[in-house]
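Structure in, sequence out. Go:
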């Protein structure tokens, strides 16, 4: 649900520029709720395939209308998850396992919402370069990939460098995003099979949320850098969902015990550390490499906002009150970064103009070449 925050931020960009995000951005990448937004904003229009189907404001309505269906209020979900974990460790009663439903939300409503959003559109249809990360728990032994591993589902387009001219795997946006949003303890893993045209083989993926390994730093070092054209400078824009990492005193940590460090009642401290550790380790080199070409729009969900109530840190809080708090949270981010926001909008419009000029520049070059070869003017 915290994807509402970047949805509001991108809606502000589109309102200020009068353009679609897909018109201005060369590559979209990000896991989990970010994959929902990125796949939608680059999906071709059903009747006008050279235009994007959605703007960011449509995605705000998507979260607001579908949130309560995907995450119905359930005060006992965490309790059922803890009982299920206890049952797995001790008595292992099959009837209790069924009753407790593994602590997961049903993926059916998420699946219905995502299919209505993307239909049968495929990864290879995206109007801009699109990268959707997920983590495969393991693959079939005959594929030689038995262990778990990070998976980058890519469609590299336009001027982006694509060594080997690799084609996108033949997977629907629905399957790719279902895989990237299968957040542990919230949804079960998502299985899908897809044909890889690069080696003529089918890939079976049993995937969970790409946030397990991906963050802006990993994205830059693991994906973006290799696709930046030679002689070009990468500019990276990060629209965050709120920072949740908090300081933990040693006495508090020691009091958790072995199970307490993964207990939802303690805000899942060990899992949060796993999510933030790699980003903090790479953040310095990430910021140094990009310098002024890094635009970061994010804020701590734990730092007070004057006169406003902070959004919930929970990713499944779909209450109307929390949606309003997230909208205000996005407004505060923009207010605190107004100069950077104005600079970004100017940069994005300039990038759109550059992309539009490239075809005409190419045609002018071709005309001059033909004229030089033939001595005749060309239409």
């Amino acid at each position: 649900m915290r994807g509402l925050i970047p949805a509001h931020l991108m809606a502000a960009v589109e309102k200020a520029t009068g353009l679609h995000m897909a018109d201005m951005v060369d590559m979209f990448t990000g896991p989990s709720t970010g994959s929902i937004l990125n796949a939608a904003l680059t999906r071709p229009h059903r009747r006008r395939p050279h235009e994007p189907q959605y703007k960011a404001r449509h995605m705000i309505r998507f979260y607001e209308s579908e949130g309560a269906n995907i995450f119905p209020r359930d005060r006992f979900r965490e309790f059922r998850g803890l009982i299920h974990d206890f049952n797995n460790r001790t008595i292992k009663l099959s009837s209790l396992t069924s009753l407790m439903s593994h602590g997961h939300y049903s993926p059916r409503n998420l699946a219905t919402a995502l299919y209505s959003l993307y239909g049968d559109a495929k990864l290879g249809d995206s109007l801009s370069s699109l990268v959707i990360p997920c983590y495969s728990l393991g693959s079939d032994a005959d594929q030689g990939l038995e262990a778990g591993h990070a998976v980058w589902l890519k469609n590299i387009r336009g001027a982006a460098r694509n060594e080997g001219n690799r084609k996108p795997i033949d997977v629907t946006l629905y399957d790719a995003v279902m895989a990237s949003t299968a957040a542990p303890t919230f949804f079960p893993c998502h299985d899908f099979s897809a044909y890889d045209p690069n080696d003529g083989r089918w890939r079976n993926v049993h995937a969970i949320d790409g946030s397990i390994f991906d963050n802006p730093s990993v994205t830059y070092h693991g994906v973006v850098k290799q696709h930046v054209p030679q002689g070009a400078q990468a500019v990276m824009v990060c629209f965050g969902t709120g920072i949740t990492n908090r300081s933990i005193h040693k006495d508090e940590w020691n009091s958790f015990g072995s199970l307490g460090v993964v207990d939802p009642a303690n805000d899942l401290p060990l899992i949060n550390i796993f999510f933030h550790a790699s980003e903090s380790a790479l953040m310095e080199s990430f910021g140094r490499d990009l310098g002024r070409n890094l635009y970061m729009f994010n804020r701590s969900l734990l730092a007070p906002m004057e006169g406003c109530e902070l959004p919930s840190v929970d990713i499944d809080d779909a209450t109307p009150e929390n949606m309003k708090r997230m909208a205000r949270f996005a407004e505060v981010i923009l207010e605190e970064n107004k100069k950077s926001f104005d600079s970004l909008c100017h940069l994005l419009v300039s990038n759109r103009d550059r992309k539009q000029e490239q075809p005409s520049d190419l045609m002018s070059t071709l005309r001059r070449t033909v004229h030089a070869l033939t001595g005749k003017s060309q239409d």
